[in-house]
């Protein structure tokens, strides 16, 4: 991942104090961050879902790629030095190696999330009807975007 830092050369690095928020959950500033040094935590609804401390790590990519509000808050746990990339889509589009890295990162996250949901579904099978929500979530994960839009329009 540190190779990604090579692609950021010439950009201005920013410094964040411990406790400072780099990305606000629900915010839509469209920035992509590349960690140079320090530790950050990723929080979703005030619950820590990840901890990032490896130089070259990227965060903020989901909101940028999906053009939607950030799904989590990213907060500095120490003094953090990072590149804040405003032209994120151009940065990703102009650097195939970075785009491939981000695609691999997102595929890995999807794999682990899907595996977790399958385990949860198998554990809850036949135990509680209200856990049928897991089935619905799994079905949506494998639906194609056009199928999901069509299904929403036909529900009553």
Give a brief outline of the structure:
With 156 residues, the protein is an alpha+beta fold. It has helices spanning 3-7, 61-66, 88-93, 96-124, 132-142, 145-154; strands spanning 13-16, 21-23, 32-37, 40-44, 47-52, 58-59, 73-76, 80-85.
Structural account:
The protein is α+β, with helices and mostly antiparallel strands. The protein contains 6 helices and 8 strands. The protein folds into 2 domains: about 5-95, Jelly Rolls (Sandwich), CATH 2.60.120; about 110-155. The strands form 2 sheets. It has a 4-stranded antiparallel β-sheet with strand order 1-8-3-6.
Name of the level-1 CATH class of the largest domain: Mainly Beta
The percent range for helix content is 40-55%
CATH architectural group of the largest domain: Sandwich
User: What can be said about the biggest beta sheet?
Assistant: 4 strands, antiparallel
Dominant shape: globular
What is the strand tally? 8
- Provide the succession of SSEs: HEEEEEEHEEHHHH
Low-confidence spans: pLDDT under 50, at least 5 residues?
none
Query: How many helices does DSSP assign?
Result: 6
Alpha-carbon Rg, integer? 18 Å
Mean pLDDT: 84
**Beta-strand residue fraction:** 15-25%
Distance between the termini: 47 Å
Spatial strand arrangement across the major sheet = 1-8-3-6
Q: What structural category do the secondary elements indicate?
A: alpha+beta
CATH topology of the largest domain: Jelly Rolls
Q: In the CATH hierarchy, what is the superfamily of the largest domain?
A: Jelly Rolls
Domain count: the total is 2
